[in-house]
Specification:
A hairpin with a 2-residue loop joins β2 and β3. α5 packs across α7. The protein is an alpha+beta fold. It contains seven helices and 20 strands. It is about 25% helix and about 30% strand. It is globular. It has two domains: about 160 residues, D-amino Acid Aminotransferase, Chain A, domain 1; about 160 residues, D-amino Acid Aminotransferase, Chain A, domain 2. Bound molecules: pyridoxal-5'-phosphate (PLP). Pyridoxal-5'-phosphate binds next to β13 and α5.
Length: about 350
């Protein structure tokens, strides 16, 4: 059942690639010619197939619409100077996908379906992986409850899809953040560690309120005391006080980001001091006041590292210094050099397609 000797590929008869301006790509709004689709029925995954990218039709009673069983991953495919295609730690995405599936009472997906399926899709849509510096093919594997019924229980049918979008470098610009004390992204015993669609839906409203106040993004604090900094929007957060790079430990409430853990390993390799521990809001405010707060940045696949220029807390704004040779910039260069096969990969993270 869990072995795919060959994936059926139905190629598009009308490629859209000629309409794409690969020199001016934005992020995630143009979609490649093909997608992988795989159905779970009668207690088993059917064989995945690759078909032309197209709308899907769903019964109005599909449980995704009512009970929100929906999870996803975010990955990238990179093309090097020779035209070879690379992924970055893809097995970790598969592992996390199944962790998310389990938490949402959804069926786990065999590794082979995820990885061989993705590799086949990337070969079919190879021309869609941009070559331009900083550009990549953003990959979105996702699964949702397609089975129907108004009964509040897990669905009996699911759909797994991988779609992709050629994307330019993700420039977040200067990000001003608001430390949030009213709303929470996640809670103890909740689903914060899962990449579940609903986690995002719940973030939009507090983020809109922050934007209305002149900020770009929310810094989430722990739901219990709001004393500890946990994540930056949908990214993990790093704070540099003096020369120590600090990030919060993963937990029920914090997503175990692949960028986060890679940055920790690279930072150690670069001889930077790192600490994985709770980050007190008051220590960050204090450091901002006494000039020892050097950097804050978000970390995630899309932007890799997103520098924070300042933060708001209890109606006061704090600015961060502009550094010439920031840890954030150094770490971003090192990780993207590995991703694009521009440097050695002593960690064994790069994965050839
Ligand atoms: C996806 C995600 C991240 C980053 O994970 P990466 O594996 O580095 O892309 C961080 N926080 C949240 C809430 C996320 O959903």
């Amino acid at each position: 059942m869990n072995s795919i000797a060959q994936i059926v590929v139905e190629k598009t008869k009308s490629s859209k690639i000629g309409q794409v301006d690969f020199d001016h790509l934005s992020f995630g709004n143009i979609f490649s010619d093909h997608m992988l689709v795989c159905d779970y029925r009668n207690g088993a995954w059917e064989l995945p197939k690759i078909i032309p990218y197209q709308p899907i039709s769903l019964d109005p009673a599909s449980k995704i619409f009512h009970y929100g069983q929906s999870i996803f991953e975010g990955m990238k495919a990179y093309k090097d100077k020779e035209g070879s295609i690379w992924l970055f730690r893809p097995l970790d995405n598969h592992k996390r996908f199944n962790i998310s599936a389990k938490r949402m009472a959804m069926p786990e997906l065999p590794e082979e379906f995820f990885l061989e399926g993705l590799k086949t899709l990337l070969r079919v849509d190879e021309a869609w992986i941009p070559k331009k510096e900083g550009s990549s093919l953003y990959i979105r594997p996702f699964m949702f409850a397609s089975g129907k019924g108004f009964h509040a229980s897990p669905a009996d049918e699911y759909k797994f899809i991988i779609a992709s979008a050629p994307s330019g470098a993700y420039f977040s610009g200067k990000v001003k953040v608001l430390i949030e004390e009213t709303y929470s992204r996640s809670a103890n015993g909740g689903v914060g560690y899962a990449k579940a669609g609903g986690n995002y839906a719940g973030q939009f409203y507090p983020t809109q309120l922050a934007i209305q106040k002149g900020y770009n993004q929310v810094i989430w604090t722990d739901d219990n005391t709001h004393e500890y900094i946990e994540e930056a929007g949908a990214m993990n957060i790093f704070v540099r006080i003096k020369d120590t790079l600090i990030t919060a430990p993963t937990s029920d409430r914090i997503l175990d980001g692949i960028t986060r853990k890679s940055i920790l390993d690279i930072a150690k390799d670069e001889g930077m001091q790192t600490e994985v521990r709770k980050i007190n809001v008051s220590e960050v405010v204090e450091a901002a006041k006494n000039g020892t707060l050097m950097e804050m940045f978000g970390a995630g696949t899309a932007a890799v590292i997103s520098p924070i220029s300042g933060f708001g807390y209890r109606n006061k704004d704090y600015e961060l210094p502009e550094l010439a040779n920031s840890y954030g910039a150094r770490l971003k260069k090192r990780i993207t050099d590995i991703q694009y096969n521009r440097t050695e990969d002593p960690f064994g993270w790069r994965y050839r397609v």
